[in-house]
């Protein structure tokens, strides 16, 4: 067996909360942090512990990641499906080839005989 114990100070939890807060006013308690601070603090420390020392299955890793997503809820309580956003990847273009004529001109600029 293996045991691991982690302790965070309140200042460490606050620093983590503020750094990861997506609201405009990062220092303000909002959402679940305002209504259930202790549970969120425990969750934060536990998730940090698992990410560093826990061996998580693919399913647990995906569940942990999806837990952090902001989801919209309809009036009947059902979750609105998220739409995937595709990245706009720029088209690759060939680099311009520099002719040897330009190289001779450039070399002449730094020639010792040219003051």
From TrEMBL:
Start-end of Basic and acidic residues biased regions: 66-75
Positions of the UniProt region annotated as Disordered: 64-115
InterPro entries, alphabetized: RecT_fam, ssDNA_annealing_RecT
GO molecular function annotation: DNA binding
Organism domain of life: Bacteria
Example GO biological process: DNA metabolic process
Signal peptide: none
Protein's name according to its UniProt entry: Recombinase RecT
Species: Enterococcus faecium
């Amino acid at each position: 067996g293996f045991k691991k114990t982690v302790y965070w100070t309140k200042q460490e939890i606050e620093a983590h909360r503020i750094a990861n807060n997506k609201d405009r006013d990062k220092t303000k308690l909002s959402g679940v942090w305002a209504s259930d601070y202790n549970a969120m603090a425990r969750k934060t420390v536990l998730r940090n512990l698992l990410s560093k020392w826990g061996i998580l299955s693919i399913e647990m890793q995906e569940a942990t990641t999806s837990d952090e997503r902001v989801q919209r809820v309809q009036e009947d309580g059902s979750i609105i499906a998220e739409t995937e956003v595709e990245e706009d990847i720029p088209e690759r273009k060939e680099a311009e080839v520099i002719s040897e004529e330009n190289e001779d001109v450039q070399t002449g600029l730094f020639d010792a005989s040219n003051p």
